[in-house]
């Protein structure tokens, strides 16, 4: 079984990861029970896929001067600087998540992706043949969800596998 957890810098996504570790991977360090039949079938532990998606850098021109005048576009140096910062953010997020998995002795693979999180997560599910997607719920209100969109809602409707949306305790208050 391959379980993917979508991780970002929110506490809700780390709560979802912790929930998955506690509920789906809790007995990974325990020896497998005797199968009684002597069939020798080996228990294959599930794999946890950690996916972090950084928004793709948008190349916008900023108008300079009067209407119809010149426009300023970010230089290659600025673009590369932003990409490097995004890579560092992704590495930090995945490092924190990997430490949580290491503490529970769970086999983990990481994915650092760039683009629209909704699309990238759904594509990664197909490419990595994930059997389950776990995402945290940010608890956006109806208005924010209408304007910002909901990654978890999009994935629940478009992912090619079951999706488990984990609500943090603060959402129940």
Structure description:
The protein is α/β, with parallel strands linked by helices. It has one domain: HUPs (Rossmann fold), CATH 3.40.50. Helix content is 39%, strand content 20%. It contains five helices and seven strands; from the N terminus they run E-H-E-E-E-H-E-H-E-H-H-E. It has a five-stranded parallel β-sheet with strand order 5-2-1-6-7, with helices on both faces. Helix 1 (11-23) links the parallel strand 1 and strand 2 (47-54). The longest helix is centred in the middle third of the chain and has 28 residues, at 76-103. The chain is globular, with a radius of gyration of 20 Å. The protein starts with a strand and ends in a 6-residue tail after the last strand. The mean pLDDT is 81.
| Cα-atom radius of gyration | 20 Å
Number of strands: 7
Low-confidence stretches: none
Beta-strand fraction estimate: 15-25%
Number of domains: 1
Q: Specify the CATH homologous superfamily.
A: HUPs
Shape: globular
By CATH, the architecture is named 3-Layer(aba) Sandwich
Mean pLDDT: 81
- First-to-last CA distance: 34 Å
Structure class: alpha/beta
Helix content: 25-40%
CATH class: Alpha Beta
The DSSP helix count reads: 5
The side-by-side strand order for the widest beta sheet comes to 5-2-1-6-7
Q: Can you lay out the helices and strands and say which pair or pack?
A:
Layout: E1 2-6, H1 11-23, E2 47-54, E3 62-63, E4 71-72, H2 76-103, E5 108-114, H3 117-128, E6 132-137, H4 142-148, H5 151-158, E7 163-167
Parallel strand pairs: 1-2, 1-6, 2-5, 6-7
Antiparallel strand pairs: 3-4
Helix pairs in contact: 3-5
Organism: Rubroshorea leprosula
Domain UspA: 85-167
Protein name: UspA domain-containing protein
């Amino acid at each position: 079984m391959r379980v993917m957890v979508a991780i970002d810098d929110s506490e809700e996504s780390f709560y979802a990861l912790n929930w998955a570790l506690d509920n789906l991977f809790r007995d990974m360090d325990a020896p497998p029970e005797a199968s009684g039949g002597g069939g020798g079938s080996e228990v294959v532990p599930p794999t946890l896929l950690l996916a972090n998606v950084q928004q793709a850098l948008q190349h916008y021109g900023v108008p300079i001067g009067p209407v119809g005048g010149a426009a300023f576009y970010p230089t290659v140096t600025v673009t590369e600087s932003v990409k490097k910062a995004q890579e560092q953010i992704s590495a930090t997020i995945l490092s924190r998540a990997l430490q949580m998995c290491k503490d529970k002795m769970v086999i983990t693979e990481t994915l650092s992706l760039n683009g629209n999180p909704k699309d990238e997560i759904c594509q990664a599910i197909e490419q990595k043949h994930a059997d389950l997607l776990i995402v945290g719920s940010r608890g956006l209100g109806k208005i924010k969800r209408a304007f910002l969109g909901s990654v978890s809602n999009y994935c629940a409707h478009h992912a090619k596998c079951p999706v488990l949306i984990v609500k943090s305790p603060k959402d129940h208050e």
